[in-house]
Specification:
With 607 residues, the chain is an alpha/beta fold. It folds into 3 domains: 201 residues, Rossmann fold; 152 residues, 3-Layer(aba) Sandwich (Rossmann fold); 193 residues, Thiamin diphosphate (ThDP)-binding fold, Pyr/PP domains (Rossmann fold). Helices cover 35% and strands 18% of the residues. Helix 8 packs across helix 14, helix 15 crosses helix 16 and helix 16 packs across helix 17.
């Protein structure tokens, strides 16, 4: 006779989650972020309360940003652990959809547990319920469907018996990894069922390392051996697979240069002779010049995003051939690439064994030195009296204060491009950039997630004033938790990055910087006082020198430490980069736009 235990659906979910382990024997779901409301407080909230030792519950201040914290946690740990996030029905749930999209793009695990309307429909319409006039089964949680790798709606407690194993299979599968949404009808959360006790047995989820097909290895080997100038593009999958060491050995043994995407940066130390640095739109001249001439491009764990490929204008060799080493078949066959469907570590190992002692022609000398000779001056130049600091000078100041255990992180706006070009990442995992979705508002929440994942790391978060204004509430959460990390707010009084893009496409400066906004008021915001009001230690640096002095004090601060510095919204690194396809209006009353359109047509023809 099957042994059973009577639990509510919410209690069964929590009990099951607590018994799912990663390959190191740790609980895969390390905690649950929660903002309670009707739809999750009575059911799931009651179930989480007695499980706080096994599954800590953290209180966020915004549903989207607490999910960002969970995502950053999983990213920093290379997907070996994840977190759950729960919200009430309605707006609490839809607030998390942006975070779900971010996790989906970046292939990162997170368990979303939004409350949902009543399965029995007796009290319909309930508070915050959207009524679909043509579909009685729909709720706002259906918004999660296109941004979830697995979606399920629990309308009977026993449905968890199939839904939860499927959810964990997705989150722990390197090929399918991404956000999972288990939509929990609020009445069902509280309903009891006799669950078989065997359902709650401890299970260890191992990371599958898919080995490549021998035929695909043969084809890739033949292409590399026949290449005159091969190059490796290291993407985020290199980190997720923990393949950075094997990548370095592969590159050294076969003398193939490596370039790095935003997600792949820090795959090799910046000063490794075969690391030619950032690639693409925000890339270095060294990396891009190699890619322009390359005849074989081996992508390792990359999605070949448009910033990496220069909207497919970067690889100019007419005979070039892509090889895509990727765990996901979807990514392995993009743009006619020769697929090498495998885990990055297993794939590189097999490929290296087949290549034997083969060495490629050594890459051109002097490219790296020429690049650093140009850009180092930008990060080291002193600020003249009464002038604003540039973003490059801010990066230089932070770089000079960095330690071996420093992690720099950012997400959107100006700094990702500057950091990709200029930051010298010394070891794997020391550069954390959310640029797959380029989501403003990830920064502060993400910094908290990194610190939770690796408490001994020196975490430094770059954020602009624009993105700080979008999502700063988890600074209060970090203060409550006494999480030590540093936030550098570069205040250029608006959206400086997009203002430059607007100008670059011929547009007039309009609605990006405060001084060009409709109200016409050049607003000044006291970020120091604002951060302090949420419990952070905060300070204003009036110069790069004062920024450097402030950075030396960060290790004595308990909790988040915020440094604000005014910056010039116009300058950016003038070197490196490549074309990026941003559509320019075909017709305009403004001559500058018409000129840019003519250039745009010429650039598209080169693709």
């Amino acid at each position: 006779m099957t042994k059973t235990i009577r639990l509510t659906a919410a209690q069964a979910l929590v009990k099951y989650v607590c018994n799912q382990l990663n390959e190191d024997g740790e609980t895969f779901i390390a905690g649950c972020w929660a903002i309670f409301g009707h739809g999750n407080v009575a059911g799931l909230g009651e179930a989480l309360y007695p499980a706080q030792q096994e599954l800590p519950t953290y209180r966020g201040h915004n549903e989207q940003t607490m999910a960002h914290t969970a995502i950053a946690y999983a990213k920093q740990l290379c997907r070996r652990r994840a977190m759950a996030v729960t919200s009430s029905i309605g707006p609490g749930a839809t607030n998390m959809v942006t975070a779900a999209a971010l996790a989906h793009v970046n292939r990162l695990p997170i368990l979303f547990l939004p409350g949902d309307v009543f399965a029995n429909r007796a009290p319909d319409p309930v508070l915050q319920q959207i009524e679909n006039f043509s579909d009685g089964t729909a709720s706002v949680n259906d918004c999660f469907r296109p941004v979830s790798r697995y979606f399920d709606r629990i309308m009977r407690p026993e449905q968890l018996l199939t839904a939860l194993p499927r959810a964990f299979r997705v989150m722990t599968d390197p090929a399918d990894c991404g956000p999972v949404t288990i939509s929990l009808c609020q009445d069902v959360q509280a309903e009891a069922f006799d669950f078989p006790t065997s359902f709650f047995k401890t299970k260890k989820w191992l990371v599958r390392r898919l080995s490549p097909d021998v035929n695909e290895v043969e084809i890739a080997t033949s292409l590399i051996k026949g290449a005159k100038l091969p190059v490796i593009i290291a993407g985020g999958g290199t980190h997720y697979s923990r393949a950075t060491s094997i990548l370095q050995k592969f590159s050294e043994l076969h003398e193939i240069p490596v370039v790095e995407t935003q997600a792949g940066k820090s795959s090799l130390p910046w000063n490794h002779p075969l690391n030619f640095g950032p690639v693409g739109v925000t890339g270095s001249e060294a990396a891009n010049s190699i890619c322009e001439r390359a005849d074989v491009i081996l992508g390792v764990g990359t999605r070949f995003q448009d910033f990496t490929t220069g909207s497919w204008s970067l690889f100019k060799n007419p005979d070039r051939q892509l090889i895509s080493l990727n765990i996901a078949a979807y990514d392995a066959t993009k743009h006619g690439a020769v697929p090498l469907l495998a885990d990055a570590l297993a794939g590189l190992s097999s490929l290296s064994e087949k290549l034997g002692e083969h060495k490629a022609k050594k890459p051109p000398k002097g490219l790296k030195n020429d690049w650093f000779r140009k850009v180092d001056e930008l990060t080291q130049s002193p600020v003249t009296k009464n002038s604003l600091a540039t973003d490059m000078q801010v990066i230089g100041a932070v770089q000079r204060s960095a330690q071996d255990n420093t992690v720099v992180m950012c997400a959107a706006g100006t700094m990702p491009g500057e950091l990709h070009k200029l930051w010298k990442a010394g070891n794997a995992g020391s550069y954390h950039m959310e640029y797959g979705f380029s989501c403003m508002g990830y920064e502060i929440a993400g910094a908290l997630g990194i610190k939770m994942a690796e408490p001994n790391r020196d975490v430094i978060c770059f954020t602009g004033d624009g993105t700080y204004m979008m999502a700063n509430s988890e600074l209060a959460t970090a203060s409550m938790m006494k999480a030590d990390f540093t936030v550098i707010i570069t205040d250029n009084r608006g959206f400086g990055c997009i203002n430059r893009l607007q100008m670059g496409t011929g547009g007039a400066e309009f609605n990006n910087l405060f001084e060009h906004a409709y109200m016409g008021e050049n607003l000044s915001i006291d970020f120091v006082s604002h951060a302090a009001s949420m419990g952070a230690t905060s300070i204003k640096a009036s110069s790069v020198k004062e920024l450097e002095e402030a950075l030396t004090k960060r290790h004595s601060v308990v909790g988040p430490y915020v440094i604000v510095i005014d910056t010039d919204p116009y300058p950016s690194t003038p070197f490196g980069g490549t074309w990026w396809d941003v559509a320019v209006p075909e017709i305009s009353e403004r001559s500058k736009v018409n000129e840019k359109y003519d250039n745009y047509v010429q650039d598209k023809a080169k693709r």
